[in-house]
Amino acid sequence: MPQSLVPAEVASQCWSQELLQSWKEGTELNLDPLDPMFEARRKAVRILRKVMKESEKMSGRLLGGGQGDRVGGLEGVWEEWAVEGERGTVTAAECAEWLLNGKGEKEVNVRNNTLPAYAAHALMMARPDLFLADTGDMRETGNFMVRSRDERRRLTTVQGWYDGSIPGGKGIVEAFTKKARDALAFTTSLDTDGDLAEQPHTLPEWSDEELDIISLLLTRVYEVRSTQISPTIPISQSIIKPLNAYQGAPINQDTVRRFLTDIGILSPHDSLERSRTAESNSRLMALQGVTIFGTTPVGNDDLLKGTELDDLRQDFTHHKVFVMDDITASELDDGIAIERVEGSMDTWVHIHVADPTRYLHPHHTISTKASFQGSSVYTPEGNRPLLPLDIIMKELSLGAEVDRQGVMTFSALVGEDGEVKDEKVAMGWIKAPRVVTYASVNKALSLSNDQPSTRPFGSLTTTRPRPTRNVSEPTQEDLNDLKALHEIAIKHRKRRYASAGFEWSLPQPSLHITTPLPQVPENVFAHSSIPRSSTFYSGQPLVDYSVHPTSTSTTTVTSQSIVAECMILAGKVAASFCDKNNIPAPYRGSSAPAPIDSLSGTDNSAILDTLLSKKNVLGGIDPYEILKSNLFLPPGEFSTKITPHWIMGLTGTNGYLRATSPLRRYEDMLVHWQIKSHLASSKGLSIPWSKFNEEEIGILGKRNEIGQKATKRAGLSASDWWITRMIKSRLHGPLPAGYEATEDMLDFRAPVVAKVSGPVGGSVVDGMVAVPVRLEALACPAFLALPKGKDIPIGETVNVVITEADTDLSIIRVSLAS
Fold first, then answer.
1. Could you give the count of Cα atoms lying within 13 Å of 569 in the half-sphere of its Cβ?
2. pLDDT reported for residue 588
3. What is the sign, positive or negative, of the torsion defined by CA atoms of 75, 81, 84, 86?
4. Cα–Cα 20 to 30 A to 258, which of 6, 123, 139, 746?
5. What backbone phi and psi angles, to 5 degrees, belong to 407?
């Protein structure tokens, strides 16, 4: 309850820990009718009822607003703010103010979080055909996206065709229904086995009116109900029901998606996650009005020359720079060099980072779009880079074929005990870095895991070579430097995790689609992306699904760990530099774990101390110890202030910044712009942009945070989408063509090993509850159906049978093997 409405002392008396526990257990708690809880609830209800009555009065006043020569009510607000070809934005306060000043004179000013603003908010929430609420931070922004005039026209027109209120609609509906039936019949005739291939057809193209119908269905697929019900729900039912194509299935979001796939609009091999992020970014940009701070002498869409700040660059071309990554990586952000200090055991570690801000100023269209996307999107079917690949690959990715490369360099002087004794930040030049793979460095340092990857779906009979790049093999001369880096990484990690934090991870599968997939638009939900002609495919793509055995706790510092540790070093150096020079920056931090269940009766510090005692000297811990601990691990969060990053073991006062992946993350570019602004001003040089202040960093940081979380969810959701479909295809069918059996291949009809990964959760259905587990051989999550009252401890191994692969929800369900 907001304290401005219901006093905290009243709200806190409306519930109890015992009541919460009974709800959790699904039991009833016998309460004394005279319990003070009931009187507190009555007080709260009286307050809220008064608020409701006053809101109803204000709502009536607002609905009558907008008199004179203009349309009244919310229709008038929409008319005022709607734009023909693009979405707009309006706040609830602006809406109320416009309605209360009926004749146009501004006599009434409305602030956020006031009664008129709340009443307008409630009215706008009930009109999703006109306004869509900011799902990111509505309480703070009060923003509503205003649907474009084109969008609303499609909504009302298609609705009119189907309800008969628009003349001529019957013919349009009948034509679409016939074309859709023909497309469904063609899909049914296709062979789902064999190689993936596009199938020619003679079906007619979709008309402009039919594209409007399809556009509404695509909107239905995108608009997941959060706080508002999509106006496309009833229309989509009217469109699909007459087809009688999906007997017994509800016409929900998943059915609509299946229909669009079956009529050849959506690719059957696209998780849609890349398009979802693109559409989300588009809507967020509309909601925020794409605020650009400051001014720049160059055009908004003009790249910098790249030479503007070259006078600040130091010459590091004598450094031997190691760029370590996977063989298929295209965005090579960072390289590492060491510099030994003569007569000392101390070593300088220089982290040289790619410099996209050499050409991109913060107000360029590419930069603005990147601020909403947050980071590159990685899915099994393809990626969406943060920056255009032609910019990345031409010169910026480390190891590109250029004479020398501009970099941002973060240097740390590391002592024999792993302590950072000194630090430097500079703009620099490097030359001809040695691009090596993780695998080659692991092999050279004898750090490789000897256990081969398993292939639970079998191995492919033929494979298409994955795109690779030119790499070097570590030479004997390189070994001394690589060994030194390995030792520094071990020492720094031990020191970092000495008193706080730990590192843990659950194995994840690797999905590599070896069959070339059809290209899809950047945003399939955009009306302009809808194809005139349907496209159909037979067969299935081949997927190389592998699981690499990993230890349940980190016991070895591999080449991947060397790079990760050096990047953490760079993040510490960047944060310390910004702090000492009063440079506003997007800091990262996390607090110590807290109890999930406050009724446990166990002291939080005791639980945490017990957990910390189980980690090894490198900070690694069995992930199931974490899951059993009853502690919630707060994720790393953005802040404009320096905060400790407990989970990473960084509890000092200098903080932490992300600064080493600017080709993949927007916030790293933001850090670079801020540091460059300081370096230039300290030398009296002018720059084509101004340094952001703390408030602006706060706005950009929050925007970036929303984008990064969305892209991370997109990657996980896409993987779950593919995994679920692969499992479903094997539950009742033979080994498909293109695969061959292996010793570690699973029989999906037989019991498999699972490990309980969480407590009983969710509601009771037919006397059963769902328990989260992980299928060990597949390295993926599932839900185990257990009788109510039966409990299996977290970390316990059980044999289960896969009962369902729900491709609509991307969920795997299992039951105990008999």
1. 41
2. 96
3. negative
4. 746
5. -140, 165
Residue 458 has, within 13 A of its CA and on its CB side, a CA count of: 17
Strands (DSSP E) found in 317-419: 322-325, 334-340, 347-354, 377-379, 382-384, 405-414
Q: What is the DSSP letter of 642?
A: -
Tokens of 634: 């707060």
CA R_g for the chain: 29
Q: What's the pLDDT at 61? A: 87
Q: pLDDT at residue 603 above 70?
A: no
pLDDT value, residue 510: 93
Helices (H) and strands (E) in the chain, counts: 22, 28
The alpha carbon dihedral of 93, 95, 101, 106 has a sign of positive
**Distance of alpha carbon 131 from alpha carbon 121, whole angstroms:** 10
The DSSP result for 602-635, as a single string, is S-HHHHHHHHHTTS-TTSB--HHHHHHTTEE-PP
Q: Say if CB 663 and CB 584 are below 8 A apart.
A: no
User: Which pLDDT belongs to residue 766?
Assistant: 81
| CB 584, CB 694: distance < 8 Å | yes
Mean pLDDT score of the chain, rounded to an integer? 90
More confident site: 266 or 597: 266
pLDDT at 598 over 80: no
CA distances from 324 to 25, 278, 404, 428, 562 (A): 50, 30, 18, 20, 9
Amino acid at site 317: T
Q: Report pLDDT digits (tens) over 318-376.
A: 999 999 998 878 789 999 999 999 999 999 999 999 999 999 999 998 999 999 999 99
Highest mean pLDDT range out of 154-158, 386-390, 731-735? 154-158
Residue 803 CB-density burial (10 A; 0-12 exposed, 13-18 middle, 19+ buried): middle
Region of 810 on the Ramachandran plot (φ > 0 left; ψ -120 to 50 alpha; else beta): left
pLDDT, residue 271, reads: 96
- Taking the alpha carbons at both ends of the chain, their separation in whole angstroms is 48
Q: What's the sign of the alpha-carbon dihedral 743, 748, 754, 758? A: positive
What are the residues whose beta carbons fall under 8 Å from the beta carbon of 768, sequence distance 6 or more?
785, 786, 787, 788
Backbone angle region of 68, left / alpha / beta, with phi > 0 → left and psi within -120 to 50 → alpha: left
Q: Global pTM?
A: 0.91
Mean pLDDT of 56-82: 82
What is the pLDDT confidence band of residue 112, given thresholds at 50, 70 and 90? confident
Band of pLDDT at residue 267, cut at 50, 70 and 90 = very high
Between 702 and 451, where is the model more confident?
A: 702
CA angle 89, 273, 760 (to 5 degrees): 105
Taking the C-alpha atoms of residue 204 and residue 188, their distance in angstroms, rounded to an integer, is: 18
The mean pLDDT value for 713-731 works out to 95
* Of 191, 67, 219, nearest in space to 132 by CA: 219
Tokens of 81: 């703010």
Greatest Cα pair distance in the chain: 91
Residue-level pLDDT at 64? 78
CA 705 to chain centre: 9
3-state secondary structure 509-538: CEEEECCCCCCCCCCCCCHHHCCCCCCEEE
Distances (CA, A) of 387 to 6, 342, 468, 673: 48, 41, 20, 16
DSSP-derived pairing of the beta strands 587-589 and 637-639: antiparallel
Percent of the chain clearing pLDDT 90 (strictly above): 66
Report whether 639 contacts 589 (CB < 8 A).
yes
Cβ(363)–Cβ(403) below 8 Å: no
Phi, psi at residue 439, to the nearest 5°?
Answer: -60, -40
Mention every residue, 6+ apart, whose C-beta is less than 8 A from residue 152. 78, 82, 129, 130
Rounded distance between C-alpha atoms, residue 471 and residue 459, angstroms? 27
